[in-house]
Structure to design on (544 residues):
């Protein structure tokens, strides 16, 4: 469904070229939850942004549904069926949550329509629909609304960049439930996370380290590697 | 009414036809139509141009529309409108000026509105300003609003300047007695070479009086705006001022929110922000399928609450 071919991303850091991602190739299949994990700064959020078109890769190709979308911009990718939940959701003064969900779903929503999405993230549509995306909302509330906007898109590829960041304990179970229930056989979720509690919701875990895929597979096969890798890192052993 | 009149009335007073209830429509400096209803009387001033609007006590769920339209060039209109709102009345007042200048000579409208709000009365006052026509002639609108709020009264003021006005100076003065409340929401959009200045002076004289001023503005093109507010806490009172501006192109905004207390129990605060649309805000809406241009328009529209 979604294929990454030899994706690399380099930046200039104090005049020196620095590699963030190196030669990443991967096939994402429909009907699966993928968790991409790795240490802070390993490049996993960068990879999510490359898939959504927010960042252009230095080299490599992205194929979606048989179409090369490497040069497609964010809007084109959104229209083709990619959705993206930001790590740090933005505030938009004056824009109501209802309007945001309407942009996301492409339809006008009444309370029961909005409830379909907001109730999944534990928010009451009646209370939240008229509220603005401003500073009266907490970070946790914004994060839940961000996830609701992705659900409202009914997209083929849902990318969640650290969905658990800044939300309360309820959310872990709630999030796992969302990821499982949102799969319909013709779509897939890509979840960027280093929260072990979310690993169990994965059909496949992709471990990224130093800008490369170190390992991938089902949680049972990957979790020992992650633990071993973390131990090695702590001990300073390669 | 002519089509142009209807268009301007729709822009400034959301009127499709002659309004229900009390109204006074002024066109090119002359009276076009007037209607008084039980409890609401409108009379022409005898000493100077303008009208007196008198609302009796306990008149509720009524509205007064007083739009002004200017469709000819070289009209320089100055009116004094006074509003007397009786005890415990609840009234919606819609004012506004629609200006169409087809010619080559500048025109202007200066409206001076003074409100005397008696005890316990509640007024929602909506004022829209809009101008169109030849871009090379000046279309000037200078409204002044003076509000006297008696005990336990409430005044909600929504002012909207929706484009095309070459220059505007909006001045608002308010004094509040005990438990009086004033809410001001201002939206201004300027473009090209337009200039707009708004100035608020609020005296919180009464105990538990409160004011909340929210100003949102967008400065596009080479336009410039000035926001000045002076809130004086002269009693155990609360005041809050919020002025946010989005600049597009080379727009310029000066924001000067000033707070002063003469009473140690007063609590006053302000927030101010000037900046462009953040890149991440655009990205978010693009990920929902909007183009960059659509995203920008959506953000600006929402910001002005239109």
């Amino acid at each position: 469904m979604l294929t990454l071919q030899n994706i690399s991303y380099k930046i200039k850091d104090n005049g020196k070229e620095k590699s963030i991602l190196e030669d990443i190739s991967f096939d994402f299949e429909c009907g699966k939850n993928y968790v991409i994990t790795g240490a802070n700064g390993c490049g996993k959020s960068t990879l999510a942004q490359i898939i959504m078109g927010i960042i252009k890769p230095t080299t490599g190709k992205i194929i979606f549904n048989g179409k090369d979308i490497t040069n497609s911009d964010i809007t084109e990718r959104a229209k083709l069926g990619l959705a993206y939940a930001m790590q740090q959701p933005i505030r938009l003064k004056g824009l109501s949550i209802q309007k945001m969900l309407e942009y996301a779903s492409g339809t006008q929503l009444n309370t029961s329509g909005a409830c379909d999405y907001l109730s999944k993230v534990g928010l009451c549509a009646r209370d939240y629909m008229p509220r603005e995306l401003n500073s009266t909302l907490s970070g946790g509330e914004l994060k839940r609304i961000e996830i609701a906007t992705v659900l409202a898109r009914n997209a083929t590829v849902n990318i969640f960049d650290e969905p658990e960041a800044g939300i309360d304990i309820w959310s872990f179970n709630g999030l796992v439930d969302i990821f499982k229930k949102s799969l319909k056989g013709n779509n897939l979720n890509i979840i960027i996370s280093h929260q072990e509690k979310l690993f169990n919701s994965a059909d496949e875990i992709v471990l990224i380290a130093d800008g490369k895929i170190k390992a991938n597979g089902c949680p049972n096969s990957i979790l020992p590697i992650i633990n071993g890798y973390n131990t090695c890192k702590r001990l300073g052993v390669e | 009414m002519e089509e142009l009149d209807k268009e301007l009335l729709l822009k400034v007073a959301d009127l499709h036809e002659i309004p229900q209830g009390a109204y006074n429509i002024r066109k090119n400096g002359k009276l076009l139509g007037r209607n008084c209803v039980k409890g609401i009387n409108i009379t022409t001033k005898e000493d100077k141009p303008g009208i007196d609007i008198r609302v009796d006590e306990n008149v509720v769920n009524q509205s007064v529309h007083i739009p002004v339209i200017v469709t000819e060039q070289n009209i320089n209109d100055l009116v004094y409108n006074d509003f007397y709102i009786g005890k415990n009345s609840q009234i919606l007042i819609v004012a506004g000026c629609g200006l169409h200048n087809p010619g080559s000579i500048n025109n202007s409208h200066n409206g001076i509105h003074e409100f005397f709000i008696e005890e316990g009365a509640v007024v929602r006052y909506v004022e829209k300003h809009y101008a169109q026509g030849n871009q090379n002639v000046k279309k000037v609108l200078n409204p002044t609003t003076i509000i006297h709020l008696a005990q336990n009264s409430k005044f909600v003021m929504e002012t909207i300047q929706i484009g095309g006005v070459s220059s505007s100076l909006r001045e608002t003065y308010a004094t509040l007695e005990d438990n009086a409340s004033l809410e001001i929401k201002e939206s201004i959009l300027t473009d090209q070479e337009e200039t707009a200045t708004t100035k608020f002076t609020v005296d919180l004289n009464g105990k538990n009086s409160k004011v909340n001023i929210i100003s949102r503005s967008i400065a596009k093109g080479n336009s410039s705006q000035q926001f000045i507010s002076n809130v004086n806490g002269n009693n155990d009172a609360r005041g809050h001022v919020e002025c946010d501006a989005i600049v597009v192109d080379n727009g310029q905004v000066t924001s000067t929110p000033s707070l002063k207390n003469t009473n140690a129990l007063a609590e006053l605060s302000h927030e101010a922000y000037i900046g462009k649309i953040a890149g991440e805000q655009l990205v978010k809406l693009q990920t929902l399928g909007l183009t960059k241009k659509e995203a920008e328009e959506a953000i600006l529209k929402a910001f002005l609450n239109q």
